[in-house]
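Run log, item B.
One chain of 92 residues. Sequence copied directly from the ordering sheet:
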Amino acid sequence: MEPAEFTSTPITTDRGHVRLPLPFDPRERWGKKPRHYVEGTIAGTPFAGSVGSAGGTAFLVLSAAFRKQAGSPPGTRSPCASCRGQGEQLSR
């Protein structure tokens, strides 16, 4: 599986959650699974989590602790490099 490299803008939901939309369908990229676990970097900061989905959009949830560590406030375009599905070797 090839790591996905992309740029996306974090958005804040009505409930205050910050999401980084994925510009691709993880099912097409990494295969159909009940849940896609990923790891990689966002804005140069290590990230691990799972892909969420709402309204037909796949996204990564960016916790407050992660955003503080990354120094990436909502609305800032963030590069996500080496984001890959679970079970694949992370290339750095």
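Observations after the first pass:
- Residues 87-92 have pLDDT under 50 and may be disordered.
- The chain has one domain: 4-85.
Flagged for discussion on Thursday.
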